[in-house]
Amino acid sequence: MTPLSGTATAIATSHGLGFPHPTGTTHTPLGWPRPTTVSRETSPTDGSASGGAPHEEHPPQEHLVSRETSGSPPLPTIPSDPDEPTATDPDDPPPSVDAQVDEAARPDDIVGSIDDEPPLMRAVADEARRRAALTERALPRPARTRVLTVANQKGGVGKTTTTVNVAAALAQSGAEVLVIDLDPQGNASTALGVPHHPDVTSIYEVLLDDVPLSDVIAGCPDVPHLRCAPATIDLAGAEIELISLVARETRLRRAVTAYLDGLAAVGDRVDYVFIDCPPSLGLLTINAFVAADEVFIPIQCEYYALEGLSQLLKSIELVRTHLNPTLDVSSILLTMYDGRTRLAAQVAEEVRTHFPDKTLRTAVPRSVRISEAPSHGQTVITYDPSSSGALSYLEAAGELAERGVAQDTPIKEQA
Questions:
Q1: Could you tell me if 333 and 152 are in contact, meaning their C-beta atoms sit under 8 angstroms apart?
Q2: Rounded distance, CA 148 to CA 260, Å?
Q3: Please, are residues 153 and 281 in contact by the beta-carbon 8 Å criterion?
Q4: 153 near 311, Cβ under 8 Å?
């Protein structure tokens, strides 16, 4: 290799990480050059000592010197508003107290307008307004018992969650509500805090052994006006055992009718009966369709839910034609709505376009509180009444009551 000559020889020395630096330069432990402080009076300005580029002279730091002592011209004066009073004259009287208050209380200058509030503050304010409106509202009482089947052949769309929370919201307003758990998993019984272990007499005995429905109903410990007919694991075999029974499709309807007639005989009644169905179109769901007058369909805001809806409507039409002519789809509720995704908005728009009169205005958002409530044996209405999920189900229950009511007598006035 040909050795470097002249000035290049002085900067070719490599240190540490291999970067060439001028000779005589101090370095850090990793080999990086450490800048040295050189006096301005003795530092070279032509770069001849180091062989590099001429050193650039920095201007003196005049900004650190007071203008009063340096003799520099004063800063220009900003002209004041002619309409704004000034207090430069010491002989002027101080402003009045009212003027000081008016000057201090300028919301536009301090906190900004309402539109400038952070999204979290707007959400909190919106929930507070919704909670106040729901608290003051009196729900109307139906003229007769409404029997609703909550069904969807697709699993995981919020059938059980919708059943227990809408039922709890109506019962909290003073309505008498009964929930029939027709799902072998027994999730509705769990959410309402009703025992459903294998030794409990359940809806299975009602369907297979003709046990009266009143013998299996238990009260919900958290909501006084809410009752539940629990389901046990024995119900998993009811699909097969019902096949050989006479009038297998109408067994639940006979049990519900007998129970309601028994209440009427003693001057009592139930305002709402919600039947929670399993995620299938088997004999249990057929029994629920035959026993009800209305179908309440929760739809998850995803594409698969739309595919299952068409098949569900065909099954409902078959039941209406052959077994229950009065059956009708009365309400559709959008669940697990995530406003951050375009898919949820598209699914909601599609459902509202095809079923404008049946889809509720309320859409239940995804909420951690809704998922946490069953682990405590409660609904979200009692677990966290101020959560967004609880407010949404309260609004959905109000819409459901107002849509199907036949008289305008508030529940709270009759209670």
A1: no
A2: 14
A3: yes
A4: yes
**Domain map (residue ranges) of the chain:** 125-403
- From first CA to last CA, the distance across the chain in angstroms is 104
- Quick count: other Cβ atoms within 10 Å of Cβ 47? 13
CB 363 within 8 A of CB 393: no
Residue 5 near residue 13 (C-beta atoms within 8 A): no
pLDDT digits (tens, 9 = 90+) for 255-296: 999 999 999 999 999 999 999 999 888 899 999 999 999 999
Token couple for 337: 């709505």
The crossing angle, in degrees rounded to 10, of helices 251-265 and 283-291 is: 40
User: What span, in angstroms and rounded, lies between the C-alpha atoms of 159 and 182?
Assistant: 12
* Coil/strand/helix, residue 352: helix
Amino acid at 410: P
Which tens digit of pLDDT belongs to each residue from 89-125?
555 555 554 444 444 444 444 344 445 567 767 766 6
CB distance 344 to 337 below 8 Å: yes
User: How many helices and strands, by DSSP H and E, does the chain display?
Assistant: 17, 10
Give the amino acid at 9. Answer: T
Structure tokens given for 197: 């272990």
Pairing verdict, β 294-300 and 146-150:
parallel
Q: Which tokens sit at 41?
A: 């009076």
Contacts of 70 (CB under 8 A, 6+ apart): 62
Q: How many residues does the chain have?
A: 415
Return all residues near 25 (Cβ < 8 A) that are at least 6 apart.
33, 34, 36
- Asked if 297 and 149 count as a contact pair (C-beta separation under 8 A), the reply is no
Query: Where do the H-state alpha helices sit in 302-341?
Result: 303-322
CATH domain 125-403 topology: Rossmann fold (3.40.50)
Which amino acid belongs to residue 388? Answer: S
The mean pLDDT of the chain is 77
In angstroms, the CA 87 to CA 58 distance is 43
